[in-house]
Amino acid sequence: MMAGKKCLIGGLIVILVICSSAACAQKEAAKDANKPLKDKKPAEETKMETGVVKFINLEGGFYGIVGDTGQKYDPSNLPDKFKKDGMKVRFTAKEKKGAVSFRMWGKIVELTKIEEAGKGKSMPVKLQWLGHASFKIDYNDVTLYIDPWKIKDAAHNASIVLVSHSHYDHYSADDIARVSKPDTKLVGPNDVIQKQGKGQSVKPGQTIDISGLKITAVPSYNNTKQFHQKSNNWVGFVIEAGKTRIYYAGDTDLTSEMKELKDIDLALLPIGGTYTMDWKDAVEAVKNFKPKQAVPYHWGDIIGSKQDADQFSIKAACKVTVMKPGQTLTLAE
Length: 333
Hints:
The chain is α/β, with parallel strands linked by helices and 333 residues long. Helix content is 21%, strand content 33%. It contains 6 helices and 19 strands. A 7-stranded mixed sheet has the order 11-10-9-8-7-6-19. Strands 12-13-14-15-16-17-18 form a 7-stranded mixed sheet, with helices on one face. A 5-stranded mixed beta barrel has the order 1-2-3-5-4. The longest helix has 32 residues, at 2-33. The N and C termini lie far apart (100 Å).
């Protein structure tokens, strides 16, 4: 009988020890759960980045941010005032490790800072060649497209669309629709505006102020060929973004008006020949109006070759950047 009591007492002691150990373990777990976040390894914060807010039509629709590098961000705490499709922003963020989203769209992050780009300090001008004669210019919170054609992504982020003339590879209603948003402003010669049914028509020599940019329409025509007659009043553009002056020539030969241009920081010039001036004419052009640098276009599609662009680069009396489609060039003020 005594042996049985000893066994019973011993068993109770073992149970008490086990229960006590379990209770201690629970207390330690609770302590760990209540430890301040600073004791855990913090999520790495991104460097200040610029990007564009985009409305993503998935899972009922939501707003994400596409950074200038192409990285997609799915922020969990985007303030309502930034939920505007096409708004340019500067931001820092921390990745939410282990977070799961059924949207499967971008990196899930928590924003630590966000502000509208272009507010306060002026941003540099960025030029992107989209191929053939199409360009995109970003300056502060303004995105400007020139002659959009064969646009791959429906960005719907254009503040302004400039169209030089009505030939199909420069005026494309479908491509204008791909880049436009409800308040996009279209500017072009009268025949383009008539075809589009809306927009602001301009004539050579006319200057307008729009979205903080000063835009001057300049003559763009062939001297002897019949493809682009002067009587059409088709245009190129001088675009003033802050202190930066960009000249887009349109489809043109080397004209007397082009020779008289002044203070051009960047000249965008056709070099393909046949329908426009060739690379030799473009070399002569920069010798006359002396831009600080130039980018050739009208090559690689329809007419003009990489060899034409390279020859212009070698012979021109200014800095020349031969761009690849999609490449971006940043211009310092």
